[in-house]
Amino acid sequence: MAPPSKDPPNHQDADVRAVTDTPTVELPSALTCAGVPARRLKSGVFNGGVAAATSSEFFKSKSLWKPLANKWDHRLSKESKSRKASSLKGAAKYLAKPGIISLGGGLPSSDYFPFEHIEIRVPTVGQFSEEETKINGQDVRIGKHDVPEGKSAFDLAIALNYGQGTGSAQMLRFVTEHTEIVHNPPYQDWQCIVDVGSTYALDTLYRMFCERGDYVISEEYTFATAVETAAPLGVKFLGVKIDDEGLIPEDLDQLLENWDDQARGGRKPYVLYTVPSGQNPTGSTQGRVRRQEIYRVAQKHDLLIIEDEPYYFLQMQPYTGPNAPPAPLPATHEEFLNSLVPSLLKMDVDGRVIRMDSFSKVISPGSRLGWITATSQICERFIRNCEVSAQNPSGFSQVILHRLLDEHWGHAGYLDWLIFIRKEYTQRRDIILQACEKYLPKELASWNPPAAGMFQWIKIAVEKHPDFGKREVVDIEDDIFQASVGECVLLSPGSWFAAERGVKHTALFFRATFAAAAGPDMTEAIRRFSVALKRVFKWEENEQISV
Amino acid sequence: MAPPSKDPPNHQDADVRAVTDTPTVELPSALTCAGVPARRLKSGVFNGGVAAATSSEFFKSKSLWKPLANKWDHRLSKESKSRKASSLKGAAKYLAKPGIISLGGGLPSSDYFPFEHIEIRVPTVGQFSEEETKINGQDVRIGKHDVPEGKSAFDLAIALNYGQGTGSAQMLRFVTEHTEIVHNPPYQDWQCIVDVGSTYALDTLYRMFCERGDYVISEEYTFATAVETAAPLGVKFLGVKIDDEGLIPEDLDQLLENWDDQARGGRKPYVLYTVPSGQNPTGSTQGRVRRQEIYRVAQKHDLLIIEDEPYYFLQMQPYTGPNAPPAPLPATHEEFLNSLVPSLLKMDVDGRVIRMDSFSKVISPGSRLGWITATSQICERFIRNCEVSAQNPSGFSQVILHRLLDEHWGHAGYLDWLIFIRKEYTQRRDIILQACEKYLPKELASWNPPAAGMFQWIKIAVEKHPDFGKREVVDIEDDIFQASVGECVLLSPGSWFAAERGVKHTALFFRATFAAAAGPDMTEAIRRFSVALKRVFKWEENEQISV
């Protein structure tokens, strides 16, 4: 596979070339929302009973012309290699025998689940706001025995019993189809696993691929929890330099090219952890070409890529400034999907990307339900972990999300919801940007309009501080933090997100989120932060600030 | 603390002696369901907002006269010792400042949680059956903003946002009070943590206390998942002999007394994993004296005890045989609680018991919500794990269970529900016992009426098999298993539950569950099993079977 070209046309699929031994075969068009019913018909009878064994293979389009994924045996940890399938779960195959009565498994009877039904009031498609839902929302009923009564593909009797490490067949089908619609991975044997959230998935992936003393590579500023999850396992983070588009591929390449086991005290890293869209904390988004370059370096050094993408659907409208009208929203689903930067998964011809998706930022964090997409080999090892640990997401979460996403909204309605979220986050981002422009002195602070995510990353011109060079940067950072708290505003100091702990900081940043606070509060918060900042820098108000 | 005496009166608290420096103080009476409102009043204002930091300490009765728990630093693994609190979570303390606006944390706004309310149809106290719930159940509404509207202590805006590794304050309060009502641990600094289920908790506990090469001790037949969770971590199980009351303390003592690191290839074990009530797979229940003896051995060898108790509230009525009337159900909550064998936690003066509780067998497995009870030190280390892994149970599970258990039923109603479950399981057990008596030839099969749980453990007289001594016991076991499948019935072979894998079996068992199948199906299943058994043993029908 040739590396991706540097200058692709806009808004098209990554330049993945289909590889096939039978070049005369006609390739079917990619799955769309409208194509899902026909796709399901092709899959035959849906098996979604209590603890039904399931797999994405049942729910994907066949794509025999795509290459098979690489194998990763040489990257599996001792722990992961030694995992065996559960002996009791092995007996499940006998349950398929007609007429069999099982006294085998320890599944309790649904007779004693004290829930006759659940009803959820959820938005009608196109009327998504909280206010509209109160008035025009739909009441969707989830019964205990909806499946035998022919009312639904999922019910409480199934969802509230034990399940499989894959997640339920129902949710797995939805996320598999969604993944195919959005990313359509260019290798054959990709699968999804429904999990209890990306933090759990990340912990599991470290344990699957790393041994004590190993390094994981990431952006130089990164999601603090990713570092803190790794540390107790003896796994250290190494930061790669970033620019406005996030991780710099040349720096990644140099780091690996010049790797010295002895000097580094560890073997050459082979796991890259990256947040390509709306990166936490910097808010940067890798463009399409940037992603292709990163992927090419990963191929060169045979890296596994953990693509952590909670903010993928928080890609926003272009920032048009305080006085220009907003850019028009995507008019169709096709336009919407084409507006998104293609994921690393979408260009992953080798099966080296393990993508983590999450509903936390687009539905609710408390669902504790996400999914990974990876090769069938990696998914199989991942399931072995789940079944002797978190098992599978809550049945309440699974059945409620399934009813909402699959049966109430459907794939098309869910994309409409995501466009709604895009609009809302664009508005929120614009509020914080306008506040920054209004209140922050340009001499002391600079920032880029984030293209995705929920974070505004503000660079502080630490070199303008009277004590610069005399005191540590983190001490000046702490002064600003404490002064901000004094002014009744909380922003997160950039040093908290350093990939490498204990490193001497030369630059100074603060992270502000525009996800949570109401609009006027955000504006006021930035005003207060500005007051604190100026006080710490002993900076005199002057005419450069427009009030 | 003297070891428990051997001959205690029936149905009373374990003989725990309160230790105090101020013996004149008047000890308050133990917490009861009726005492909960007064208890809550004493705690002051309830803090249960979004991701509120919380602790059992807020919800327990003060008990300064009790001893403090032992410290377990010397037992913590390298991984656990090195865990640090999250830096971002540390900033949460500033949120308490009045008037502060936070742009710090990445919590999304509840405006975009697409759930206006959830309504659950649940049983009215005293009318617990599925049929009664359909007709007389109550519809309980959970709104998005119930807390600011003064309708409840918990709502969707809180439950569906991010949470803490402790679980929500609301559920933690309920399980803490429940634990105090039922077990009232005899040391001061016990706490609970709400987790995503006992399988996850067990995985976490192994990682907290074991290193590769370590042994965990358990009953010689044990929960297969407990063994399979440990194996990939390099942790091996060692089985202790059992009798009708489960684990034999003398055998445990001998094993530890005679431990030889060299011969065993590992250091002396200090973790005991045990299922005291309705043990899986043997159905055995440790009596009160047995538990005291086990605890005494644990004290002698300074063991940590993982008390896995999913079946604690599946302690059933005494078995009265096929023709006698059933024993009357407990008439009061006090009578009910006194009818339960006291837990190891209840006699744990040292803080060496880590109890795992579960709603899986008494509410529903799909809740994926359980809790541990242990010393504050162990709980703190456990939380550090949760917050960089599974985080906390699903918000849907938490808010639904809280509304049902805490606000709809209350503690008293929940005990009523547990008495209902007791009655139902007693009936189910009696059906399988009667089927065994009717169909299984006494020459080939023997069993005890289980006092708790969901399993009937059937011993097969393998020595009566024509090939006994010529073929391996597991091969004869497999013949019976295959013949059973041929007869359309599934029971689980005992060898699947061996604590030590690869050991030569001399006895032969099958496990049947009476939790799932309908009554007539269970009876038919045992009849079929009997046919298979007799065929494999070439056993001729004779007059000894009453038909």
UniProtKB/TrEMBL annotation, chains A, B:
Q: Fetch the SUPFAM superfamilies from UniProt.
A: PLP-dependent transferases (SSF53383)
Question: Which Enzyme Commission number(s) are on file for it?
Answer: 2.6.1.57
GO BP terms in the entry: aromatic amino acid family catabolic process; lysine biosynthetic process via aminoadipic acid; tyrosine biosynthetic process
Q: Which residues form the Aminotransferase class I/classII large domain?
A: 192-528
The chemistry this enzyme catalyses reads: an aromatic L-alpha-amino acid + 2-oxoglutarate = an aromatic oxo-acid + L-glutamate
- UniProt family annotation: Belongs to the class-I pyridoxal-phosphate-dependent aminotransferase family.
**UniProt-recorded name of the protein:** aromatic-amino-acid transaminase
Which organism encodes this protein?
Tuber magnatum
